[in-house]
Predict the 3D structure of the following.
Amino acid sequence: MEITVYGAAGEVTGSCYLVETKSARVVVDCGMFQGSEKVERMNKIPASLTSRPLDAVILTHAHLDHTGRLPLLVQSRYRGPIYATKGTIDIAGLILQDAAKIQEQDSQRLNRKLRRAGRNRIEPLFTPETVDRVSKLMRVIDYDQWHSVADGIKVKAVEAGHILGSASIIMAVEENGTSRTIVFSGDLGPFDAPILRDPACIENADVVFMESTYGDRDHLSLAETLKEFQELIAFAVERKGKILVPTFAVGRAQQILYHLAEFFRKGDLAPFPIYLDSPMAIAATSLYVKHEELMDEEATELQNSGQLKHDLSTLVNCESADESRALNSVEGPCLIMAGAGMCNAGRILHHLRHSLWLDSTAVAIVGYQSKGSLGRLLVDGAVKVKIFGETVMVRARVRGLGGFSAHAGQSDLLRWLKPMAAANPRLIITHGEDHPRHELSYKVKQLYGLSAEIPKMGDRLTI
Ligand SMILES: [Zn+2]
């Protein structure tokens, strides 16, 4: 059997593996490369991937860096099944449609410029229609059950604790009378985090492909992060100011709502209006509510008893642009959550322009901010910033809160690997930049005596 790594080798985006036996060809994840223009030029389906027919695609979870090349695969004539958990299918529909819309808007804007310059127009990477074709190929696999996906290949999805529907994939491959178990970690969530269940304990594997996004460090503890968040909110509430939270629509928005509910329930903070100003986050939140079977015990209990709804009685959803604009004239204290998470686009920009210059405003940065993004400038303490070409003074109190993460830190990655390590599997570390990959590999050797492999993009491993 051979496994080729078609992405997420030395970086965290573009996840894609091809598993080939004599009788089957199966793809695990088909993700988009994200980041710089140079990286995004890699968003193609390699000819060697489709040189012979594929039997199936299996997804670990819905994030774009694990699903974003599916429309390209369909454009290159793939018509077979795409297997994923029900939660992943629902969230992937939302994420891929959103990505298609953004790409259409971006290419329209660029084409206007190109036309003025007398140059040829460009096409978006994919359209909403292609995403519809992807959705029609999706097939549900239930958690914790074996599903046959190709000749000699069975898969089982187990909880990964990363976002709704996320899974690690256990693959059993029969070839020449021998059976081998390959584990693909997918993205792993932290243990003991709210809302989702913990990553499942996997006890046996011959080969493990393991993510290493935070292979070199642990996050600040959630308890400390919540304390900082509460203090920041109290600061703005006292001054009747607005608390602005730039947020990712899937996962982070729901986690923040959950913590606000807890603050109100325990009396740590008196309730104030919360505005969820993002149609995508509103849609994602209702998917979380719909899939209560994927929540941990505490979240299920709070949801079923109606407690969560009661705690969040001051929550207002803002669907339309008019509702969003109306927030300009709303008096504080109130909290506004809006996209985009890195403040590089979206409704949050209007709120920042409107309130950053006020010393009663608080800004909570709750997610990763890439270099050069407005969010990063704010966390780094910029005294003035440009928004829509206008200079805005930063008098608001801005805090970066590092402990909200959908990814396991180093200790949790090692904890996940521990039950499998005893079986002495072949370990392949992917989905991380080279520094975290090497740090994690060093720790794994030190703790479990396993030597890890660190493949490059395009490497073909014989198993
Ligand atoms: Zn992910």
Remarks:
- Residues 61, 63, 162, 187 surround zinc ion (CB under 6 Å).
